[in-house]
Write a structure and sequence with these properties.
287 residues, alpha/beta, 25% strand
Amino acid sequence: MKRKQKKRALLLSAVLLLAALVIWTIWGNCTIQTTFYPVYDFRLPPGFEEYRIAQISDLHNAEFGTDNQKLLSILEKEAPDIIVITGDLVDSNHTDLDVAVDFTKRAAAIAPCYYVTGNHEAWLGKTYDKLETALRDGGITVLRNQTAVLEKGGDTVQLLGIDDPDFAESGSGLFDLEEGIVAGEIEKAGAGEGYRILLSHRPEVFSTYVGCGIQLAFCGHAHGGQFRLPFLGGLVAPNQGFFPKYDGGVYEQDGTTMIVSRGIGNSILPVRFNNRPEVVIAILHTA
């Protein structure tokens, strides 16, 4: 009798644990986290003290609420100075240009939006031209190896935006080739003197951003490692493999800070675990 009771107790515990994991996973895939990162840099012009940058990355045509209202509500609440979109706005496997463009138009009504491509945009082929035209018509600044000047409080900073390397390398995946392409794109962007902020989809070439003298970079692509394990971090990320070094968060090296968004949508794997979609809010400070 005691043995049967023990088995039933173990079975009930297993069922409850499984149910808890299922509920946790569903909740973690349907809700959006707002992550705040303060950035302190003495080189930042004083006019940009408490400058707020909202980052949207790897949306992959995901929708949170009707017309992405849940996502837009977060942006409205945080009232950023600018919104940066760091690639994979669409998904090449199930592309819906209308959903993507509608979101960006609504976001542009909240704050000026700056966009760079990701690998999924590169994989769209000729369809990408339609997307870019629609984005520009909707008031989005598309930066393709170009630099925009941001102004605040009488000061300026340089905002560089570069293409995903797959536009050039056709998905070869060779790391050394990717580094060379990225370095060339940053040079082509032609930023002037002063503080330089980079928008780029790829975090795995962080050393290239350091070598090019970037002060602050915003990246995505890693999806937070898709499945996040306690004490270990992300499990796997594109172009980084298992237990990626740059899966999400803030990284610093030799005067360069890189913020990697865990992203919002999914692509090949439709489910995240312990890895909520996130909107990044970076708050700049002159240290």
